[in-house]
Amino acid sequence: MSSFSEFDEIGYWSEIKLDIIRDYAGAYSKILASKNLPHIYIDAFAGAGQHVSKQTGKFVPGSPKIALDVDPPFREYHFIDLNAAKIDHLQSLTGNNPNVHLYAADCNDVLTGQIFPTIQYKSYRRALCLLDPYGLHLNWNVIMQAGQLKTVDIFLNFPVMDINRNALWRNPDRVTAEQRARLSSFWGDESWRQVGYEQTPGLFGTIEEKVSNSEFAQAFRERLVKVAGFKRVPEPLPMRNRNAIVYYLFFASQVDVAEKIVVDIFNKYRNRGQA
């Protein structure tokens, strides 16, 4: 066993997210296996494979362990994390499973350069990809490539809290160029500035005001459809820490039945993220 000890502490909303991944991954694998389609699981920010619950102080299986426990199993598993120590610990949990591939690297490079090119439509390979960044650490070209391939379902953490803290301020002129660039990289271009603010008349002329979290998330939902090319993007699930929205959990796919399954799952957990 690895000596790694710095496990991420996760809140109730993250435990709900893991339950959602468990529910959908199980349904997804059953459907793809019944069609004899080789399907793979990808975790772009895999972590150490287990977490500590803030509520109970106990260990909670991370998304890699959840995926490995799915029956029928996925054909391949690809786990990525920049933190080499976390990948080493994950290796101690996965053992010598030849279907598990570990990468201590930047997922933006690994996904677009190594993994996604192997999931071509004509190869009949399909994938479920979890994009759960710690903040604005994901590049739009990853999302774009997943949409254009037509073979990848994604769950995506839209980190609205990090966005509000660092880039989408009430006074946009005070945001640093570095933080604007981070959001532009995640969003894909600088159009977030047009959708993130609205012009309203004031006593001394036009006032630029920030839009609500839900409006900003809806604008990103439109990008997933119109720009990235996903056909099915249901309403995202707001993940809350008490009354504050920490992030929106998006799902995107090309398949009608996938959307139906996720809508049912989202509805199941919609009122449980209030703790």
Largest sheet: 7 strands, mixed
Treating each run of at least 4 consecutive H or I residues as one helix, how many helices?
10
Spans of at least 5 consecutive residues whose pLDDT stays below 50 are none
Structural class: alpha/beta
Could you give the distance between the termini? 34 Å
CATH topology, what is it called? Rossmann fold
Shape call: globular
What order do the SSEs take from the amino end to the carboxyl end, as H and E? EHEEEHEHEHEHEHHHEEHEEH
Average pLDDT rating? 91
**CATH class bucket:** Alpha Beta
The overall strand count is 12
CATH-derived architecture: 3-Layer(aba) Sandwich
Count structural domains: 1
Give a quick set of tags describing it.
globular; 12 strands; Rossmann fold; single chain; seven-stranded mixed sheet; alpha/beta; 23% strand; 275 residues
Please give a structural write-up.
With 275 residues, the protein is of the alpha/beta class. It has a single domain, classed as Vaccinia Virus protein VP39 (Rossmann fold). Helices cover 40% and strands 23% of the residues. It has helices at 12-34, 63-68, 84-94, 107-115, 140-149, 160-166, 177-187, 192-196, 213-226, 256-269, and strands spanning 9-10, 39-43, 50-53, 59-61, 76-81, 100-104, 126-131, 152-158, 197-202, 205-210, 237-241, 244-252. The strands form 3 sheets. It has a 7-stranded mixed sheet, with helices on both faces. A 3-stranded mixed sheet has the order 1-3-4. It has a two-stranded antiparallel ribbon with strand order 9-10. It starts with 8 loop residues before the first strand and ends in a 6-residue tail after the last helix. The model has no long low-confidence stretch (mean pLDDT 91).
